[in-house]
Write a structure and sequence with these properties.
Length: about 100
């Protein structure tokens, strides 16, 4: 299996400020997301990723996020195996210093 690219929270924040063409997918559970989510992120809990494939565009660049980076890495690897362009945000929301939407 090929390596999933990782990005840092700081790098992701810079790319969002530059309006880079990317979509953030937050794979945390509902109660975690209620505590705040990166502005503009789509919420798809990890367990719903497989049935959400039809709603994702293989031309889109996705950055996956969870609490610590472990679940989003699993989701990233799964999506990459299915032909999607993905990156994992290392450190997850524990490392995110930017704004969150509640």
């Amino acid at each position: 299996m090929s390596e999933v690219k990782e990005t840092t929270p700081e790098e992701l924040e810079r790319r969002l400020e530059n309006n880079d063409n990317l979509t953030i997918i937050d794979v945390r559970e509902d109660e975690e997301v209620e505590q705040g989510m990166i502005e503009g992120a789509k919420h798809i809990p990890l367990g719903e990723i497989p049935e959400s494939l039809d709603n994702l565009d293989k031309e889109e660049n996705y950055v996956l996020v969870c609490r610590s980076g472990a679940r989003s890495m699993r989701a990233s690897a799964f999506l990459k195996e299915h032909g999607y362009k993905v990156e994992n945000m290392a450190g997850g929301m524990l490392e995110w210093k930017g704004d969150v939407k509640r």
